[in-house]
Amino acid sequence: MSDRAPPSGPLGILMLDTRFPRIVGDIGNAASYDYPVIFRKMEGIGSADAVTTHPDRPRVLAALKANAEALAAEGAIGLSTSCGFLALYQDELAAVSPVPVATSALLHIKALTGKKVGVITASAKNLTPAHFAAVGAPVDTPFVGLPEESSFASTFLRNGLTLDRDLVEGEVVAAGRDLVASHPGIDTVVLECTNLPPYKPALKLALGLPVLDVLDLLGAFYAELGNRRR
Length: 230
Known about the structure:
Layout: E1 11-15, E2 37-41, H1 47-50, H2 57-73, E3 78-81, H3 90-96, H4 108-111, E4 117-121, H5 129-133, E5 143-145, H6 151-157, H7 165-182, E6 188-191, H8 200-207, E7 211-212, H9 214-228
Parallel strand pairs: 1-2, 1-3, 4-5, 4-6, 6-7
């Protein structure tokens, strides 16, 4: 018999204030998980507050802290966020959160010792060395972003009401091909953006490489929470 205790509560997800569709595979869809989750919207903190090179850090951190406390009070035993760019607050949020925190899929990178990792991000112009440094990843990690005028950007960065799943999938695959063509030797791809996991199967098929996303991170994180609570 295993001596591992199952987690005894849900994982809490700190959600940006958005309106775009969240299909299965997206971090904001409860059907994306095989364990319990609870969500809390951070009112007034949207995509533009997170996906930027110059965030209002005190304002964003205050919202993260207040909503982390609220989720913990509702029974969350650990927390994540609905945007990979919130990696920037990993240590600051962990220091004030009542429960453990895993903010971003970028946390994968530190553990991938010996791998040549490349990242696909929602916005190449806004992803900075500081985001990588905040999670202990090499600041020169190669990355590509989805095009600024893409269908992806229209929905997820400009908070659109509709989603063309097939078109976005094609854009993600094209970005992956650009990544490996521009940076020969990449053997593992990490998806920064929490809206990208639905397109992971097509990306893996196109590239023939392992692809890791926030759902992979959180599955392991949630299992570890059970171990901590034994």
